[in-house]
Amino acid sequence: MTRYFLKGEAQARFTQDRIDLIPKLAELCKAHQAEFVVVCGDVFDSNHVAPQTIVRAAEKLSRFPYPVFILPGNHDPLNAASVYDSDVFKALPERIMVIRNKKIHRSAALPGIEVVGAPWFNKQPTTDLCGQLLESLEPVAKGVIRIALAHGQLDSLMPDTSHPACISKATINKALASNKLHYVALGDRHSVTDSDESGRVWYSGTPVATDFTEINPNKVLLVDASVGIDPRARVEVIDSGSWQFLRIQENTDTTDDLTRLENRLASIENKERTSVSLALSGALSLATNAALELLIEKSRDLFASLRMDELRSDLSVVPEQLEYEELALSGYARSSWEELAERAKQSGPEAEAARDALALMYRLADSGKS
Amino acid sequence: MQLVRIKLLNWRGVESAEIQFDSGITIVEGDNEAGKSSFIEALNLLFRERDSTKKQELKRVTPKGVDAASTVEVEFIAGVYHLTYSKTFNKKTATTLFIHKPTMLQLIGAEAHDRVLQILDETIDFSLWQAIQLEQGGEFSQINFKNSDSLAQALDNAVGGSGAGEGESALFQKAKAEYLKYFTERAGKETGELAELRALQKSLQQSGSTLEGSLAELEGYVDDSARVADQLKSLQERLPTITLNVVEYEKQIAEIGTIRQQLSACESQVQACEFNEREIVRHIKEREDLTLEIKTLQVTISSGEKAVEDLEKVFAKATQGLANATKERESLLLSRQTAERKLRGVESSIQLRDRKLQLENLEQQYQQQLKSHREVLAVETELTNCRVDDLAVTRIEKLEQQRREQQLQIGGQSAKIRLQFLQATQVEQGDDVKNYKAGEDLITDSATASTLKIDNTLSVEITPASDSYELTLALQKTVESLNELLAQCGVRNVSEAIAVHRKRSELTGRLRELKRASDSGQVSVDSLKQTIAANEKAIAEIEQAQTDNATGPLEELQQVGRRRLEEQEQSLAAARDMRDQMQQQCAAAQTKLELCKQGIESQVVSLKKLESQLKSLESKKSSAELEASRTKAASDLKAARQSHDSAKAALTASKSSQIDLLLDNAKQALQRAQSEVHELDKQQAANRARLDQMQSEGLHEKHQSVLAEYDDITARLKQLDRRAQAASKLWKTLCHHQRQAQLSYARPLAEKVASMGKVVFGDSFSVELSESLNIVSRTLNGTTVPFDDLSGGAREQLGILLRLAAAQLVSKNEAMPLILDDTLGHTDARRLETMGAILNSAAQTAQIVVMTCYPARYSYVGGAKVVKLQHQHGLLETER
Ligand SMILES: [Mn+2]
After folding, report:
1. Is B233 an 8 Å CB contact of chain A?
2. C or N: which end of chain B has fewer Cβ atoms within 10 Å?
3. B171, A353: Cβ pair inside 8 Å?
């Protein structure tokens, strides 16, 4: 996955970490005695990823010691260009299974386990694929645990449910109630989400954080779907990723504020796997502004990325009287300053430019003195 | 600054010269070669160049061929300083500075140079001084006031400003440098990093949309693959049905085939039955025909036997007839022999008689012949005695004639004239008048004289000849010839000759006659003799052969005999014909009989054969049996035809042609579906190939990385853009305020120019100056003319005024000399006076030096000190 705010070696590190997630998952399985893994779509960003990306992922998967059920999602649908039809994927060991149809998938290594899935065949399905799948199912035989894999948005979580591909929560509930399955693993949402009190319909989020918008990323779910005294499935949220995408919001009016921001940035661990988005607000003097610019410049190289979130920032530079007197301007320079200062008091882009011009003038005149 | 004096040594055309300046206005006069310009040049180079310079400009100041250095020395006052400054170039280079005030000091070399620059920098605005110089032929119109601090200061003072310091200039330059980081100076276009990032952003955007295009194309193939797969699926679902159709129709076609085979078998059956029936009918017919033939043959044979009997009778009758005819003929032969013998006897008697008559005739002939022969001989003998032939008689008569004529002439009795007329002519002879035609002759032999008058044109007189001896001689000769000839002919005179000649003619005729007679007999005497002998012999033979001598009229007997023989012959021929006829009848009857007998025999054989045939047929199958099989065959045929008809009906009921069409249609549908499948497979393969190819490009990552880079560049660009906008804002604001300041400077300068200009041009004069302190336009009598459109003279005058104004505005302690090199060339006399007054007035506040080779131009400058430069000598003179 390419993140626009990651560049150069940071992007390479990110890509490598995502690939390395596969062996890391194997370790987690071992540690938590998991029996198999299901992945509910969007394993790949696109069917058009570079051959080397597919080869590398397949290589890691081929070494994965547990059964894996992979469901094609909207990013990697089972169409003519599907990554799952590539030669390397076809050559994977049997335990790595791609759900290609509504059939019930079983594995000799997993007695009493049935896996069904609703794969995506194109990027824009016109029906609730999950609903279709569930309605076609017969009730589960006694002693067998059946898990359904689906991809897409649950209508119960969506403000707008008019989209035809929305997954019907009601259908899921009905299927659970009529003993057609025991757990629905959902994909598409990058945030871990427990859809309701039944505890049997979960989004597992993303195992590696990918964006600032994600809530509770870097997780995998350890699920025990067997039916016990507690009707809920036992689901444990486990850390899997180490990347973080931090949005820092601060008021920076004074030099004290600046110091606080500096300390906050300094306190962040694992900077090389952290992207920072700064949303700053406040009125800066010309000197404070210069100091802030210096701080940002200095911090930039420490993090995987650090940038101003212009949309969420509201910084203005206001020259102080003191600063003006300090310059002791005369002639047309003086009248120029006065004009710019007058404009800077207003608002809008013109005033913004005037403020910037004043800052520049301050810098130029000041440097001339020293 | 004030110039005190300047001295040149070996400077171009000047060997050695010195000018001392007035503190007001100094006019330096001299012609072009005098070296005025050399002073200005030397002054500039002194301040600008170090003595060590290697510039070509300086190399040229030393005159060629002069082995000496070029030196310039200037004494001047600047602020508190009073100095003498000199430089020697090219050879023995040296720089020397004597500071006279405020403290005496001497410096040399670079130190001297640097000190002078420092003093100048302290005391005057050097760049302004440079700017206001008006050089001969140079661009004098406008002044470059840029970088002139002292003017700005002076003007600032003039407008009562607080005075802008050096700090502003520095800030201005820095702001400009900052602006130029992002924008070009003139066009204000983005440049440097800003432009680069902008271009990069654009190219990334293009790459991005190209990649998006490729991705869209790829998705297109994906979609197409799905569509083709759908079509293939539905086709393959339909294929079994279509195939089944074909199989079903083929089955039906096979069933129809069986019906067709049955029909064909029935047709064969019908044909076989028909054949069988025909055969039986043929056999019956054959047997009937055979029986009929036998009957007919039997009738024929019995009628043939009756015919034989009749024929035998005919034959017998014919044989009798033949015998009779033969007998008749033999008797007729005998009668004819007798008649023949009788005729022979008569005929030989006739022959004998004729022979005897012929012999008698021949003998008479013979005697006659002999007699005429003798007569010929006699005539021939007589002829030899008569020798006067035709030729001789002619000659004799001629000679006789000649003799007579000659005789006559000799007698003189006659003369002869012969006139032949060539045309019709009238001739008078005496009283006689006669008309002659052309070709007529007139002969006169009158022995007397006569006159002929011819046509009254010619008169001929004829006179008779006299005797002549010659004539006598000729007569004698003629007589001799005549006599000789007569002698030869054996006659005595002419008349005898004529008689002999007549006799000879008679004899000749007689002989001719005789000869003709003997010749007409043609039979010679000898041949007559022989014929007679032959006749005698033939008679003897006939007499000997004759048996009985016929008596009576022999010719009649002969006639009768001949007639009888002829009759005999005819009867014989008739008898012979009769016999032949009988013979033929006999043979014919016999032949017929034989034939008839033979015919019956063969017919009997045939009959026997037929009878045996019939018998054998009967023995094979009896007629009754044959009839029975005929009935059976008829019924078989009927049955076969019925089955055939029913088979045909079955075929019609099967609708075979419809099934054929349906099968054909089903087959084509199958083919079409298959080819469609094939086509779709091909399309799918093409999609696959294209997909495989594009898949390998890793378009997703490429696109993502372009997007990332684009985003990064855009963020950087935004920051840079903000800085650029700030720089632009600052620069433009500074420019604007500087312009405003400059415009306010322009006002006092313009006022100063105007106050002087009013003197020269009149009270309505004013000028407008630009922010760069150049004259934009001049207004006179309410008319404003742009500077560039003014005449050369006006531009020149305004240029001088502007310089004078600038020089005057600079404050007193920083005053500087204004050097004008040969100006006012374009100025008319009327203006020269006012310009002179202006110069004179300006010299109160600023030192002015005018170089000219036209002293008249400056004669109006009242308070001027004039310095005259002499060529060669560089002599210094002063006049007031
Ligand atoms: Mn998705």
Report:
1. no
2. C
3. no
CA distance A173 to A169: 6
Domain presence at residue B76: yes
Q: A96-116: per-residue pLDDT in tens?
A: 999 999 999 999 899 999 999
* Residues B652-702: tens digit of each pLDDT: 888 878 888 888 999 999 999 999 999 999 999 999 999 988 988 889 989
Q: How many CA atoms, within 13 angstroms, populate the side-chain half-sphere of residue A227? A: 16
Residue B318 lies in a domain: no
Residue of B nearest to A54 (CA): B698
Question: Which of B462, B490, B518 is the last residue before a domain boundary?
Answer: B490
For residue B763, the CA-to-ligand 1 centroid distance in Å is 89
Chain A contact set for B744 (CB, 8 A): none
- B723, A356: Cβ pair inside 8 Å? yes
Supply the angle between the helices A286-300 and A255-267 in degrees, to the nearest 10. 10
| Shortest Cα–Cα distance, A102 to chain B (Å) | 18
Q: Is residue B535 domain-resident?
A: no
The answer for residues whose C-beta is within 8 angstroms of residue A24's C-beta and 6 or more apart is A240
Would you call B229 and A359 a contact, using CB atoms and an 8 Å cutoff? no
Q: Which amino acid is at A331?
A: G
Q: Could you tell me the domains of chain A?
A: 9-239 (3.60.21.10), 246-369 (no CATH)
DSSP code string of B275-325 = HHHHHHHHHHHHHHHHHHHHHHHHHHHHHHHHHHHHHHHHHHHHHHHHHHH
Name the residue with tokens 């037929």. B610
Q: In terms of CA atoms, which chain A residue is nearest residue B156?
A: A331
Given an 8 Å threshold on Cβ–Cβ distance, is B700 in contact with A332?
Answer: no
Q: Between B226 and A228, name the one with better pLDDT.
A: B226
CA distance linking residue B643 with residue B268, whole number of Å: 11
> What mean pLDDT value characterizes chain B?
83
A333 → chain B, closest CA residue: B168
Q: Which of A361, A363, A367 to mutate to test the interface with B (most CBs of B within 10 A)?
A: A361
For residues B806 and B751, what is the distance between their CA atoms, to the nearest angstrom?
Answer: 11
H helix runs in B386-492, sequence order = 390-410, 469-489
Say if pTM beats, i.e. exceeds, 0.90.
no
Determine how many CB atoms are found less than 10 A away from the CB of residue A142: 6
Instruction: Indicate which CATH number applies to the domain containing B6.
Output: 3.40.50.300
CB pair distance less than 8 Å for B708 and A340 = no
Residue contact A331–B733, C-beta within 8 A:
no
How confident is the model over B242-293, as pLDDT tens digits? 899 899 999 988 988 898 899 999 999 999 999 998 998 998 898 889 889 9
Of B778, B774, B776, B777, the residue nearest B765 (C-alpha) = B778
Listed by number, the residues of chain B in 123-142 with a beta carbon closer than 8 Å to a beta carbon of chain A are none
The two tokens of residue B237 are: 């679902």
Where does the pLDDT of residue B148 fall: very low under 50, low under 70, confident under 90, or very high at 90 and above?
low
Note whether B855 and B866 are within 8 A (CB).
yes
Amino acid sitting at position B370: L
pLDDT band at B874 (very low <50, low <70, confident <90, very high): very low
Domain that holds residue B851: 1-124+815-880
Shortest CA gap A90–chain B (Å)? 15
Contact between chains at A79 and B226 (C-beta distance less than 8 A): yes
Residue B499 CA to ligand 1 centre (angstroms)? 192
**How far is residue B468's CA from residue B410's CA, in Å, rounded to a whole number?**
7
Domain-embedded: residue B89 = yes
Environment class of B437 (CB within 10 Å of its CB; exposed 0-12, middle 13-18, buried 19+): exposed
Domain end, chosen from B490, B520, B547, is at B490
Contact B726 A121 (CB under 8 A): no
Question: What is the tally of structural domains in chain B?
Answer: 2
